[in-house]
Amino acid sequence: MQAPAESPRYSKTLHHVPKAMSELLSSYSGIPEHDQVSHITKLRDAGYAQHPYPCMGTFRFLDLDLARHEAYKEHVLGPLCQPLTPGKPEPLFLDCGCCLGQELRKLAADGVPPHRLWASDIEPKFIELGFELFRDGDKLPRDHFLCPGNVFADRGDLTGDQLASLDDRVTILNISAVFHLFDLEEHRRIVDRCLRLLRKDTGAPVLVLGTHAGSRDVAGPQHLFRGKRHMCFHSGESWETLWREVCGQPQWKDKIAAVEVKAKMFARIRNEGPEANDIITLSDMDWEKDGNPLQMFQVWVTFKSDS
Ligand SMILES: C[S@@+](CC[C@H](N)C(=O)[O-])C[C@H]1O[C@@H](n2cnc3c(N)ncnc32)[C@H](O)[C@@H]1O
């Protein structure tokens, strides 16, 4: 197949492997540095040929966004590495819409016991390519990669939706670069799906977190049409409104005691310079005019004890 033309959504060539990913591939997957660019590019090309998401086209999946999320150390890695305490529920992490599953591999390399780690996606090809990329079929249980796991599957639909096996079990739910693929009505359905997945009996807040495209409009959501998709990007305010609205719907309002929504807009520059091949996050960048704003979020949901 002929390579697509260079564009802001597709780069033919990978110049540097970001440092954190390079270390992960060396230490966790045993892939020497000098082989990494060709190994990644081959698998990226195979994935992009089938599903041309910009996160593949631009090699953005190499960025390990979760490990750079402000909640990572304290609220993700910390609880997941804690030994089991009698009387306390065991934490369970799900990366929903995991694509190649890079976040799960980073968590495993950072010491999280694999039985606490789960991932899901709608595309089996991505799961398969993830195992090829990380060469870890002997480290992570394949049956923890739920596929197809469709965020739009209805309640009780067990035929096409393996995700339902985690309903009421997830204590930390990562959902990154998924909402922004869809329109606002679909966002309401995804929020409902997240709430169904969350564990209700921990007696403490449970967490949904991630990073996705943010709105250029400070006050409201930004609606756009790209390819064949209607998409919606949020401001901090519209993101909170979305969660409060769904938590207030009849199926949830008597089950949820509290919801806390935190969202932070930021921008990211890829540094292509020779000595720094990492990613720079500039929280104070003028994202209203520069580049595409991103939104990093945490949503904490406390369920009522009898829900
Ligand atoms: C832009 S990628 C983001 C992947 C990954 N979370 C990341 O941040 O690198 C979006 C992912 O959502 C998955 N996806 C698309 N529609 C979905 C659906 N209805 N249910 C579950 N996953 C879906 C895609 O297959 C793809 O892996």
Strand and helix layout:
Layout: H1 19-27, H2 33-50, H3 54-57, H4 72-81, E1 93-96, H5 102-109, E2 117-120, H6 124-134, E3 145-146, E4 172-174, H7 184-197, E5 206-213, E6 222-226, E7 229-233, H8 236-247, H9 250-253, E8 256-270, E9 279-282, E10 294-303
Parallel strand pairs: 1-2, 1-4, 2-3, 4-5
Antiparallel strand pairs: 5-10, 6-7, 8-9, 8-10
Helix pairs in contact: 2-6, 7-8
The structure holds S-adenosylmethionine.
Contiguous low-pLDDT stretches (5 residues minimum) are none
CATH superfamily: Vaccinia Virus protein VP39
Sheet with the most strands: spatial strand order: 3-2-1-4-5-10-8-9
The CATH class designation is: Alpha Beta
User: Which series of helices and strands comes N to C?
Assistant: HHHHEHEHEEHEEEHHEEE
Approximate strand percentage: 15-25%
Distance between the ends? 53 Å
Unique bound compounds: S-adenosylmethionine
Question: Could you explain the architecture of this structure?
Answer:
There is one protein chain. With about 300 residues, the chain is α/β, with parallel strands linked by helices. It has one domain: Rossmann fold (3-Layer(aba) Sandwich). Helix content is about 30%, strand content about 20%. It has nine helices and ten strands. It has helices spanning about 20-25, 35-50, 55, 70-80, 100-110, 125-135, 185-195, 235-245, 250-255; strands at about 95, 115-120, 145, 170-175, 205-215, 220-225, 230-235, 255-270, 280, 295-305. The strands form two sheets. The protein has an eight-stranded mixed sheet with strand order 3-2-1-4-5-10-8-9, sandwiched between helices. Helix 2 runs antiparallel to helix 6 and helix 7 crosses helix 8. The longest helix is centred in the N-terminal third of the chain and has 18 residues, at about 35-50. The mean pLDDT is about 90. The structure holds S-adenosylmethionine. S-adenosylmethionine binds near residues 97, 98, 99, 149 and 178.
